[in-house]
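Hey, resending since the last one bounced:
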Amino acid sequence: MTIRNLQQAINPSSLAIIGASKRAGSLGRVVMNNVLASGFPGQIWPINPKYEEIAGLPCLAHVADIPGVPDLAIIVTPPKTVPELVHALGLHGTRAAVVITAGLGEDSGLKQAMLDAAKPFLFRIIGPNTVGMIIPSARLNASFAHLLPSPGDIALLSQSGAIATALIDWAVENNVGFSKVISLGDMTDVDAGDFIDLLATDPGTRAIVLYLEAIPNPRKFLSAARAAARLRPIVAIKSGRHPEAAKAATTHTGALCGGDQVTDAAFRRAGILRIHDLADLFDAAETIGRFAQLGRSRVSIVTNGGGAGILIVDRLMDLGCELADFSDQTIQALDRLLPATWSRANPVDIIGDASPERYRAAVELVAQAPETDLLIVMNCPTGLASPVDAARAVAGLSQSGAISTKPTLTCWLGERTARDGRRVLQAAGLASFDTPADAALAASYLHNWSRARQTLLRVPENPVEGISYDRKAVQAIFRQVATEKRQWLTELEAKAAIAAYGIPVPPAVLATSFDEVEAVATDMLREAAAVVVKLVSSTITRKSDFGGVALDISSPLDARRAAERISARLASKQSPDVIDGFAVQPMIKSEHGRELILGIDRDPVFGPFILFGSGGTAVEILADSAIELPPLDEELASGLIERTRIGKLLAGFRDEPPANRSSIRRALLAISQMVIDLPCIVSMDINPLVANAHGVIALDARIVIDPKSVECPGPNPALAIRPYPRDWQKNAILKGKTYRIRPIKPTDAALYPAFLERTSSDDIRMRFLAAGKSISDQMLIRLTQIDYEREVAFVAVDCATDELAGIARFSADPDHECAEYGLLVRTDLQGLGIGWALFSQLRDYATADGLKRMEGIVLAENTKMLKLCREFGCSIADHPSDFRLRTATLRLQSRG
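The structure tokens again:
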């Protein structure tokens, strides 16, 4: 639905060029000349009241004078004229324009005036402040770019016009072609998310490359990218990577999140391969577009030069890749093939005199070894063997299919004969690189992209199955804090909140006087060897800055004196902060314990994020942390742990036993659920969370809330990725059978073939408005792998047989006011009430989601569906453009 009125814009049969000109050096002349020079075969209408003719074409004075309806308008007129032109185009029937004109900003009011003019017509605006749009396959260059790229299968979306033209220049020199080149400009209306949606199913596009400076609608962007990345590779550069981190961050989490780690996390969850250099953009797209996703990315290397092998291993390790560890069987097999002096390890050094036959045998064996996921073959020029002959041997393996099961990269070092060898390899369809660093970088692209694709397919449930939390208890704490007009929770309040979500905390007692401190310590020391005394203040956020923590106290009197010293220290600073009391708790001495930090904070673009890393008082100095977007599941939590240095220590070493990773994961899942359930959480630190072989315990916690949002229900609307809506599941007993009505999951793709087999061709035609009995793999991915942001699907599954009985879905428009719905029930199960149950669930979900209406397009002959729609209160009307169709509209009652 985000692509409404954009399909014709990227494949127009007619153009209006408003502001076309004869004046030398004018933008209107350059654009007009480019359109004509590209050989656009459709109708072209220049619009400019100053001329009667331009380039042999009649020039019209006004939009209203156009004898037909242009599919697309190109606007290159002064800024103040644009809103009126958009309105005129909308009245005339045109539904999209590329606004090349700059200067339509917020301050002048022209931006809003342009949007207001477009809204009544659902008119789509690409730009303003854009270079324009180039569709080589349609012979359309509606831009002021200096070159016309050749047709290809890579789509380029660039927010910067200058970067777009620079990449076009590079592509022309390097024989890279494009399916589309879109300069996004200011993205006032149409943004990157819209075009990603459009390109996801574009048959002419194999890969999408992005250059972005800002992401104005992150939730829409991620929703579109998560759908598209399941079908084709997406490679992105996001500039502005190092803005200065906030120096006065209120929590450790905020202080640790420097640069744009959150963008990295968001792109990873969307299946986007992020790179940082324009020169690598197309190499990355070509690499990941050439190969399938890998389950693991263990790299094996075959080389005739040991030094080159060491170089590439160093670079692979720098880039976070994994080297294959050969089994004894693989080593023994290579022993039988290679000279006694071979390396007997990975890299496989087959010695400088390696013949083509030795290359062929070693490469084939290593490629087929079960430890190999990705193969790199290298050659160093020597006087003992020909690089070209070696290349022919490897090329022959590729052409025969002997190494086709594993991605293979090649690197022939040197010039002259090496250059000839690279030509042989490239002619055989093998990726070939000049240097070990380049080959290693290509391997890292495949490694990182495969991991991002695996992350993309995670669909965390809400809440995680098998774990229960006490949301009401936490909300009561937050409500009390809000009534006191506070944002910061005291330590005891914060610990009570996380304890309600299952994170262990030590017992603690609030003492409001020195006498109470001594009395509480007396009681605790009967069982504990030592206690801790901590300052409790609703106005002090970092106790250690005021010396507000006293550790390892072994007598009641020392506990009292510790509280007195803390109080005196605060008084000596003449601080306006108040002391609410002192927390007394047992001293926790964890044998082999590791101090961790778990945190929540908000990114201005992508909203809430979760941090994990090394904790303790030196947390900012250690700066060992990783970031992930909620919601989490077990695998995502594990990945978060593994991306830190301390994650390796938690696995155990020497006499250090491994930490209880399950407990750490459960703590991460708990804070993920907290940020989903409780939108008022602004930030949180659990530091330290001490982990050992027995479990975890939180020794300190800090939470900041937004008091105005305490009553806001979950799931948190600020989440960039919606969790799987597990609460929207129910059983329906229909004619004695029980069906589970639940949101669709990616694994449901396996249920479709049997479902379609028992659904008649006529019913499929009624649902999809087209004949057909099967669904392509790409369409199946789109139907089952959704992110629940603007689309939802409910399935009815027979509880006895696990067979799919029916599906209902809707897709909401960009304004989230209207959703288009569809429904299909297996032919032999119709009449049982399955359709009614699914439609009811769909309606209730749409109502809860704040939609105003649902619209379905139904064939007039589909009397069963029309009857169901009427029973639900839908109004039925003739379709405005097709007499064979009806529109069934259901108006929804607001939750309020």
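The longest helix spans residues 436-456.

Sorry for the duplicate.
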